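WARN retry 2 of 3 for item q-0093 after timeout on previous attempt; input resubmitted unchanged.
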Amino acid sequence: MAENSEIRLECRLSAPDVEEDTETDVLDDPSPYESDTEEVDIDSFVKSIPHDVNDWEIYHADSLTLEKIGDGFFGDIYKATDSKTGKIFVIKTMKKATKMKLMCAEIRLMARLKHPNILRFLGVCLDTSGIHLLTEYMEIGNLEEVVEDSREPLPWSLRMKLAHDISKGMAYLHSVGVIHRDLASKNVLISNESNGYTAVVADFGLAAKIPSRKKKLKVVGSPYWMAPEVLRHDQYNETVDIFSYGIILCEIIGRVHSSPEEIPRTNHFGLDVDKFRELVLGCPPEFLQLAVCCCQLDPQSRPPFELTARFLEYILNTGLTLPMEGRRNKKRSTHCSNAICMYESPSSSPSSSPSKIVR
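OK item q-0093 returned
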């Protein structure tokens, strides 16, 4: 392809392959820090889980062999093997029964999500303590572990491919009206497919409906990946996920931990671009520029996920700098000279045009 070739990117995705539901599939503003004394009728809840998007099954704990592989503040993660079939999957549990409503919300949401870069819902596990989430098992582990493992070869093409996978999964999530709120490298899982490593977005325990302009959401998430507006307790929307993605890109680019000691930050909780650039001199400029754009302080200047996905796809397919066409906002001042950061938000936002799975 000639160097001056151009590709036109529309800031919009086609409607995802999901059907609208009259019931709420995700809580408005879930918080794991609040006790919930409301009891859950497990039998009724299981009957209400939709079957039209994912095929899933009900398991009982006594039919599974469990191996603990993760220990979180709110719950534990187990590798589970079906004693009869040998099938392997993962069980996510809640440590406190008072969090069962949160678990049910995550189950209901995941049952309605279906995308190659979203962790696949396989069913539920029942025992005397309640109901637990079953998902596919990703044998490589999480992205944070892969990035920091010096024994793991990560050529730039693979790093961009993993970044592309995440952006596709998140573009889908936003398109169906859901904000993740805890997007972090530890919540991106890696499997080894026939075409190499694949990344999927996981852990939807804090996911919420994309809020209206007037609604202020609670401060939740993992601090190192939090957008500045969340840390300031300001009103925020789905663009906080884009900032979190930018920090993940910095981790991938530098193969570093997400802490401010390794990814330098400004006094305003943003990315210190000049200092970080000095640490990653060998990075392809387009890839670094994308990270910078996603970490902008102005939430409305961060490129939406469907645009970042197409940007990365073009680079992966051609190896060329992407000369994106689109309206430029001449009044906006950013640290980015690349066209991806100079788009103007469309009047119809990506979260409003496709079909939703939440209301």
